[in-house]
């Protein structure tokens, strides 16, 4: 099976079968956005400009901090819980990228799901409209993680820990966009940019950290 890049891709990639893994990691370097769906509504739901992420989620984070405060959580504890949430996210960022986003697939539906989740980014790494997660997709992840946090953390801490996790996610998505489309301005940003682009264009089996290489160092997946 050969994918026709001039036609909507989502309905095609599943037919690649075992060849999908090789195909999706042969990047097409252009800033044009490929078409995913014939249906215009579905197509629009897959495209998100980067600034929508902080615009949507930063006010929500502030509301979560307010809820914790109203439940009696002190300022010092709010800061601690917020930082804890960011740290939890950083581990989640690494784990999802390594074990979920880079899972090997070969069936029609598994290929299609993987392409929508992360494969499209590796095939078209410079597509500026599919570098960040659409808010609707993020809500799906929140519906999974919020009950876990609420059941494990004290009632007054849970909203702020969730807020910290979302803050970590916002930092991740904005950083990810910068790594592909921003201009490095110091040694740190140049090193981080090179680190991530090596993951795309040299070796996709290592270098799973986006905002840092900390967990790659811990788990032995440095390039």
TrEMBL record:
Compartments, as annotated in UniProt: Endoplasmic reticulum membrane
Membrane topology, as annotated: Multi-pass membrane protein
Main location: endoplasmic reticulum
Parts of the chain that traverse the membrane: 48-66, 78-96, 132-153
Keywords, alphabetical: Endoplasmic reticulum, Fatty acid biosynthesis, Fatty acid metabolism, Lipid biosynthesis, Lipid metabolism, Membrane, Metal-binding, Oxidoreductase, Transmembrane, Transmembrane helix, Zinc
An example Gene Ontology biological process: fatty acid biosynthetic process
Family: Belongs to the sterol desaturase family.
Listed name of the protein: Fatty acid hydroxylase domain-containing protein
Organism, scientific name: Selaginella moellendorffii
């Amino acid at each position: 099976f050969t994918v026709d890049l001039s036609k909507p891709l989502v309905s095609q990639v599943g037919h690649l079968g075992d060849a999908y893994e090789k195909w999706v990691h042969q990047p097409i370097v252009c800033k044009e956005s490929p078409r995913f769906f014939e249906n215009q509504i579905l197509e629009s739901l897959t495209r998100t400009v980067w600034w929508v992420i902080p615009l949507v989620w930063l006010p929500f984070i502030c509301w979560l901090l307010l809820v914790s405060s109203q439940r009696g959580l002190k300022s010092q504890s709010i800061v601690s819980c917020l930082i804890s949430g960011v740290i939890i996210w950083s581990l989640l960022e690494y784990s999802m990228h390594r074990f979920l986003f880079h899972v090997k697939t070969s069936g029609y539906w598994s290929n299609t799901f993987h392409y929508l989740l992360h494969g499209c980014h590796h095939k078209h790494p410079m597509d500026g409209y599919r570098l960040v997660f659409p808010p609707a997709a993020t809500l799906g992840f929140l519906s999974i993680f919020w009950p876990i946090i609420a059941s494990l953390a004290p009632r007054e801490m849970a909203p702020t820990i969730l807020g910290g996790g979302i803050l970590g996610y916002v930092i991740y998505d904005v950083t990810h966009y910068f790594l592909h489309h921003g201009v490095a301005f110091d040694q740190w940003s140049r090193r981080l940019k090179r680190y991530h682009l090596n993951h795309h264009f040299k070796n996709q089996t290592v270098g799973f950290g986006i905002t840092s290489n900390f967990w790659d160092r811990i788990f032995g997946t440095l390039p």
